[in-house]
Amino acid sequence: MDNQSTQNGPPSVAGSDTSKSKPQLPPSCDPPQPGAPVKHKVWIVFGGTGHMGRSLVKCALHHGDFVTTVGRLHETSPEAMAALNSDTCLGLLCDVRDSSSVARVVQRTLDRFKRIDCIANCSGYGVIGACEDQDEYDLRNQFETNFMGTLHIVQASLPYFRQQNGGRYIIFSSTSGALGVPGLGPYCATKYAVEGLIEAMLYEVDSFNIKATLVEPGLVRRDEPDSGDSPLPTWGHFLIKPASEAYSHATSPALHAKRMVQWLGDRQPTSAVKCAELVWQLAHCSYPPLRLLLGSYAIESIRDRLRSVTEELEDWKHLNYPPPPDVPVGDPSDKTAREDRDESEDKEGKEESGEREESKEKEGEGEREGENEDVMDIVTPEPKETEGSG
Fold first, then answer.
1. Residue 388: how many CB atoms within 10 A of its CB?
2. CB of 262 within 8 A of CB of 128?
3. Bridge partners (DSSP) listed for residue 212
4. What is the pLDDT of residues 95-111, one digit of tens each?
5. Which phi and psi (to 5°) does residue 78 adopt?
6. Is the Oxidoreductase keyword given for this protein (predicted)?
7. 38-225+234-294: CATH superfamily
């Protein structure tokens, strides 16, 4: 762990995991306290043999929870999953693109552990390449895995959670669910869809005491030691597709994601082990957030994106709201309103000018009448009294 994390607060998800201290969710979530007794929960972890899922399964088992870890069909052998079976762990295979396969996992977990408290979806698939270069198979496979897979998991388990009047979903999204990344266009689209789905669903099931959190990790490294002869690929759930000629030059924006993968290698700054600890706390806290961002890259990139959106809203809001009365004259955004205001002022000025001229004419006529009366007084002699008139 870096010194800055030690001095300024709880340990971050960056750095090595050599320290005994663990990252902790903020008190507002009411997370489980270190050393305090915790009720053991039953998990289903889809994608439990992948990058993030493996660390989460180990963390939950370490804390005494019960876990069904779900491997990917056609990728993990039944023998490998069976080797994971124990009193607290059940290993199964599943294809999240098939709703019946997901339903069997839910039922077998209920048969084994008699209940389900938390479902985590760590499964995912992405193709690195320009939008134009990805064919229909690439697009559909990403949507079937990332979006439809999440929907199948929700639809298979929601009836049980409603009947139980409680349950928790922890859905692994991505920073790509909050911003567009060149070279990951369709993958970003699937994560945007997942975030919209979960946020909408959360409103629908709030009365059933069902909660959900979207986890948005940024550049998570795999810091669990590999076991066996088949180590887990660092970027195993991504396929790098060769670029077409139009997007193949070295500085092409479409190659951004590929360059990032090649540059980082296994040097991602965020620890999967520490992320797993925080996700475990999510399942046991009283007030989980809708979104949990993990890693400094996730915080900085999404904050920059939100700042950009806010600035754009401010730049164009004048099209929908009347301008304030004290808008500077030099503001080009209020040109139309200013022209209307100037035209109105000119009209009022002309009316006032006409009234003043009319008033002056009336005053001039009154003065001329007064002068005529004075002149008549001068030229008209007063009548003299005649003698003997009395």
1. 5
2. no
3. 169
4. 999 999 999 999 999 99
5. -60, -35
6. yes
7. NAD(P)-binding Rossmann-like Domain (3.40.50.720)
Q: At what angle do helices 149-164 and 185-205 cross, to 10 degrees?
A: 10
CA atoms of 22 and 67, how far apart (whole Å): 22
Give ranges for CATH 3.40.50.720 in the chain. Answer: 38-225+234-294
- For residue 137, the one-letter residue type is Y
Query: Which residues are catalytically annotated?
Result: 173, 187, 191
Q: Which residues of 55-68 are buried (b: 16+ CB within 10 A; e: fewer)?
A: bbbbbbbebebbbb
**CA distance linking residue 216 with residue 181, whole number of Å:** 14
Site of tokens 């970027």 = 235
Give Cα 228 distance to the centre of its chain.
38
Q: Is 329 helix (H, G, I), strand (E, B) or coil?
A: coil
Supply the DSSP string of 358-374, one letter for each residue: HHHHHHHHHHHHHHHHH
**pLDDT tens digits along 281-300:** 999 999 999 999 888 878 88
Pair of tokens at residue 1: 């762990």
How far apart CA 191 and CA 80 sit, in angstroms, is: 30
Length of the chain: 390
